[in-house]
């Protein structure tokens, strides 16, 4: 799926955000809910107006899953199979929402990393996150 250079770029970006998963994840959720309010339907457990603690907690969980994917780039299907089952069979998330999440995540990365998030890195992350999305929607 990814070339050696793309893998290195994904890992390099992950190293830059490691330790900030909760804040990046919370910002990702806020951006997702603001730009695509219909996505809130999948986060009912957060309530109509989630507080900072809820956003940080769920954001942390989301980005921890991204971290699992980064660590298992060579075998995303095996690494993400339980998450794919959860989203397809339990949560029943409409697969069309994953590209929206990817778009919002890339905006968060670009806004925080700025010049460190090069065009090449953005392309590698787009390819990587699209691969994650494909794996998460294969069980529908």
TrEMBL record:
Domain Globin as annotated: residue spans: 1-140
Transmembrane intervals: none
Keywords assigned by UniProt, alphabetized: Acetylation, Heme, Iron, Metal-binding, Oxygen transport, Phosphoprotein, Transport
Any single GO BP term: hydrogen peroxide catabolic process
PROSITE patterns listed in its UniProt record: GLOBIN
InterPro entries: Globin, Globin-like_sf, Globin/Proto, Hemoglobin_a-typ, Hemoglobin_oxygen_transport
GO molecular-function terms, A-Z: haptoglobin binding; heme binding; metal ion binding; organic acid binding; oxygen binding; oxygen carrier activity; peroxidase activity
GO cellular component, one term: hemoglobin complex
Entry's family note: Belongs to the globin family.
Protein name in UniProt: Hemoglobin subunit mu
């Amino acid at each position: 799926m990814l070339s050696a250079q793309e893998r290195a770029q994904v890992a390099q970006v992950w190293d830059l955000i490691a330790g900030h998963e909760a804040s990046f994840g919370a910002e990702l959720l806020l951006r997702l809910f603001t730009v695509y309010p219909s996505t809130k339907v999948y986060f009912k457990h957060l309530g109509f107006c989630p507080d900072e603690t809820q956003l940080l907690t769920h954001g942390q969980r989301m980005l921890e899953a991204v971290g699992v994917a980064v660590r298992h780039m060579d075998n995303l299907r095996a690494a993400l199979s339980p998450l794919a089952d959860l989203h397809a069979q339990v949560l029943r998330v409409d697969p069309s929402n994953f590209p929206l999440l990817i778009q919002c995540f890339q905006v968060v990365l670009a806004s925080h990393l700025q010049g460190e998030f090069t065009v090449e890195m953005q392309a590698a992350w787009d390819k990587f996150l699209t691969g994650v999305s494909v794996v998460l929607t294969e069980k529908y």
